[in-house]
Structure formats: C-alpha cells, structure tokens
Amino acid sequence: MLQEDHVTVATTGAGYYLREMWRALNGDPEHLRHLTFTGAGDLPSVFTVTDLASAAIGAASLALGEMLAITSDGFPSITVDRRLASFWFRSSIRPQGWHMPPIWDAVAGDYRAADGWIRLHTNAVHHREAALAVLGTPADKEAVAQAVSKWSASALEAAIVEQRGCAAAMRSQEDWALHPQGRAVAAEPLLHGSLLEAATAKPQWRVARERPLQGIRVLDLTRILAGPVATRFLAGFGADVLRIDPLVWEEPHTVPDVVLGKRCARLDLKNPSDRAVFERLLSQADVLVHGYRSDALAHLGLDAQRRRQINPVLVDVSLDAYGWSGPWQGRRGFDSLVQMSSGIADAGMRRMNLDVPTPLPVQALDHATGYLMAAAVVRGLTQRMTTGAGCEVRTSLARMAKLLVDGSHLQFVAAPLESEGHSDHTDAIELTAWGPARRVKPPAIVDGVPMHWDYPSTTLGSSPAAW
Questions:
Q1: Could you tell me which residue, 330 or 201, shows the higher pLDDT?
Q2: Rounded CA separation 260/91 (Å)
Q3: How many angstroms separate the CA atoms of 411 and 346, rounded?
Q4: Three-class DSSP labels, 238-295
Q5: CB-CB neighbours of 354 under 10 Å
Q6: How many angstroms from the chain centroid is the CA of residue 168?
Q7: Is 34 helix (H, G, I), strand (E, B) or coil?
Q8: Count of beta carbons in the 10 Å neighbourhood of residue 101
Q9: DSSP string covering 332-397, please?
Q10: Dihedral, CA atoms, 105, 109, 112, 115, nearest 10 degrees?
Q11: From the centroid of its chain, how far is CA 378?
C-alpha cells in the first residue's frame, strides 16, 4: 500500500496529492503500492508544501517505474524521502567557495498600494521596464514604493499587464474563487491531455534498466522554473536534453541549479534561418517541453498543428501560468504572482497573524508542476512505445495552486524539518561553469536505477544547436 513513514496514508497529505496527480496522468492506481514515503518534518507553511513536494517527485518516479515494468522484469520499488524532497524544492545546488546570484532584482517585491498589496515581478529587463514605464519612476525601490502607494492594486496590475509586464494584486482565496479566472481554473483538469493518431510503427527503443531514458531526445524550450525542473529530472535518467534560449536571454539566479545534465544552445526563433534549425531539431526529437504563453509559439508559426506536421509522434508537454481558459489565459505570470492572485499569500499572512503577504517558503508551484510535467513526458513515452502515437499534454501553475489548497485545509505544520547537513549532500564535486559545487542527494530512489547526470551545469549558449 502507499505508505508515509511506513504508516498507511488515507486521503490527505502526500497520499492525497499523489493520488490526484496519478489520476490526472491516467495511471493505474494499482501501481501506487510500489511507492513509499520516508522521513519526517515539514517546510514551515500553513499549506502542506512538503507533502506536495514528495508527491510530485513520487509521481515522476512512479511513471519511470511503470516504463521499466513494461520493458523489463517487474515494477521497481520506489522510495521518496520527504526531507530531501523539501530541500530540492528550494534548490539542489550547494556552491563550494562561490555564491549564487540574488534571486530577485532591486525592484521586484511586494508593495503597498492604496487599497491592498501588489507584487511586481521585474527580474527580466523588459518586465522591469514595463513596470517602471507605468509608474514613471527610476529603478529605485523607494521611488517605486511611493508611486505604487498612489494606485489601487487592481488598477496597477491591469496597467502593467497592458504594458506587457508582470504584476499581481494580492487577493484572498474567497476573492479568487469568485474571480472569472479563478472560476475558469477551478473547472480545468490538472492535466489537459490528448493522444494523437498513430502515424508510424512503434519505436524500437532500447530501455536499459540502469539508464531508462538514454537515447531519448528532449527539446527544452523552457525558462524559469517549472519546465527546467521537468527536463532536469529527465536528464537525471539519461535523456539527451537540448535547451534552447533566445540570443540575449540570461537567467543567472536559476541556471546553475536547473541546467544540470543538459546541453544549452541559442536560437532566434524570429529569424527564418534559426527557425529552420529549430524545426529540424524538432523533427528529430522525441519530446518537446515548452513554457511559452499559449499564443507565443503560434505567433512564431509553431502552433500545435504545425508542430504535429513537423513531428507527428512527438510527446508535446507544456505549461502556462494562469490556465488554458478564462480571461487570463495567455497572461504572463510566475509562481510568486500566482501565489498572490490565488489567495495563497493572503492566507499565509492571515493565518500567521502577519501584516505582509506571506507566500510559500519555496516556489512550490513551479517545482511541483515541473515534476508533474516530467511524469507526463515519461507516461507519454510509455504510451508511444505501446501504441506508436504521440501526445499533447498541458498544465498550469494556477491549477497546481488549486491542488495545493484543496489538500492543505490550511493546517499549521507542527514538525519542522531537521536542519540540512553535509550528510545530505553528494560526495562528488560538480565542476560547474561557475565553480565547484555539491548537490543535495537525490530525493527519490528507484530500485536499480540511479539518478545521476552526464554533464555539470554550464552557461546558456555553450553548446551548438544540434543533436
């Protein structure tokens, strides 16, 4: 049976989240008995974040176990360490003698508006410029705060979004439940999925038990943070992951953590010759993982229909921030903004008797969605092996937020995690492009299938755009 600390899980906690994810993946519920949760303690939150982390990593690992079960002898036992899962939801990398850049730029953060709170997301230069253009201020935190205080939160949110920036007014869970976008997200499934018509014979992949995804080509068209988490998991079991970024895009505060095991190239998809290179890569890929807004690839001539024309058996997995229906579909967004919109930050503030927005202690929506996407990829590959057909699967951060809230019931966590120590880290030194580092030990153990990566983390654009 599904176990947590060797105690049967009912319909709450990690067991609840895992069942919901596995159901969304159309997985056989009998497979759940192969997974065990171990470890104690929880990330400090009024939401059950550690349970969500453990379940998401468990779902991806379970999908891998299922692939092995149909290609080799028996379903492997799977163990997920709740404590290590919590650490991985913060970051997996531990620099040795150097430091990761700050997570946020000088302007990003929560600000008091005239009638509430708003969060500005300004890490990207064009998003910062959009917010500052609306506010009419320089990139100075105090000047921004003074300007924000004169606006209503919802009016400023709308103005910045109209300017192609990123912002979110803080709403309560009750307000979100009544909001048109909140209602739209609540009506969506956790995963939208469709199996495409089989166009070729079943692939003749050799699934080696010790490296099950070796030889699988994954085209990674993702950025901060869910998509890169998904493809990092796939690379950990042997997938050939090629990440594609625009010519001038940088992501210094997350890249060392999430490009582990990947090769990273650059293409300008607005340029016809570079787009031709991308289409050639796509035609030879087994998997495409992308996090562009729902209309962004269409504007580049790469909508779902075109992608199917290029590669009819592609496993095509994508996400967006606010869902695939409703008035905000296609809106730019990030984990921290969805937490503000969906009532998570407000609930944390109220339940902890604080006077500032209180988000989750980690970007759990990003990480959980990333592992769910990885699970969808592996299940898609398994289906392709058995049917010959590709598939399209979509999910969103906002729908993951609903899953977290539904399973949490706003209960305070009583047992803190034991502090991280050297014994939680791998012995091997990873020679990243920024300096030596260690990693937190893998949070999941699939029996007989070690999780490890073939390449250290390296800079964006350091590899050619080629398989």
A1: 330
A2: 12
A3: 15
A4: CCEEEEEECCCCCCCCCHHHHCCCEEEEECCCCCHHHHHHHHHHHHHCCEEEECCCCC
A5: 10
A6: 19
A7: helix
A8: 14
A9: ---HHHHHHHTTHHHHHHHHTT-SS----SS-HHHHHHHHHHHHHHHHHHHHHHHHS--EEEEEEH
A10: 120
A11: 15
pLDDT for 414 equals 60
Spatial separation of the C-alpha atoms in residues 287 and 313, rounded to whole Å: 9
Token pair listed for 45: 């939150």
The pair of structure tokens assigned to 265 is 């190239």
Helix, strand, coil percent content, the chain, rounded in steps of 5? 40, 20, 45
Residue 99 has pLDDT above 50, yes or no: yes
Secondary element (H or E) of residue 64? helix 49-71
SS3 state at 169: strand
**109 alpha carbon, distance to own chain's centre:** 21
Query: Kind of pairing, strands 391-396 and 192-195?
Result: antiparallel
Contact 300, 269 (CB under 8 A): yes
Tell me, what DSSP letter sits at residue 208? B
Condensed to tens digits (0 to 9), the pLDDT of residues 166-179 reads 999 999 999 999 99
Distance CA 174, CA 172 (A): 5
